[in-house]
Design goal:
Blueprint (H helix, E strand, L loop, with lengths): L3 E4 L2 E4 H19 L3 H18 L4 H17 L20 H12 L9 H14 L3
């Protein structure tokens, strides 16, 4: 994901909007126990407001970002972080991603020092809560 975007003769720091989105989303999940999909919608609206306040077209910004969101979504998992927060993956549409994570852990793609059994158990518990 590029940290900057050339827009209308300006260099835009896209990280600030992306970080805003992620922080709002995580706070809503952690503090208000919202499901990811609800938190994501609210975070997207906050991101949109910040983009517009910076004098940037939301349509142009969103089109730029969606190119990279698709690329990242299609990216092959190679390592699952030891401290992965599984809360965002409690919605049913994330079952496939959780299964891919479990397969990567099973095949040994974990960072050094990670308790493979604990991570595998955490992913399994999340899948069990989804009825998968």
């Amino acid at each position: 994901m590029p940290r900057e975007w050339e827009y209308d003769g300006r260099t835009i720091d896209t990280d600030r909007f992306l970080l805003l989105h992620e922080e709002v989303e995580k706070t809503l999940i952690d503090q208000l126990d919202l499901h990811y999909l609800h938190a994501h919608q609210i975070a997207t609206r906050a991101e949109e407001a910040a983009v517009r306040a910076a004098g940037i077209s939301w349509h142009d910004y969103d089109r730029f970002m969606q190119k990279y969101v698709k690329e990242m979504g299609d990216e092959r998992l190679t390592k699952v972080p030891a401290d992965l927060d599984l809360k965002p993956y409690r919605d049913e549409h994330d079952v496939d991603l959780l299964r891919r994570m479990a397969a990567e852990v099973e095949s040994g793609h974990c960072p050094p020092g990670v308790d493979k059994a604990k991570l595998k158990d955490g992913i399994k518990k999340r899948l069990d809560t989804l009825g998968s």
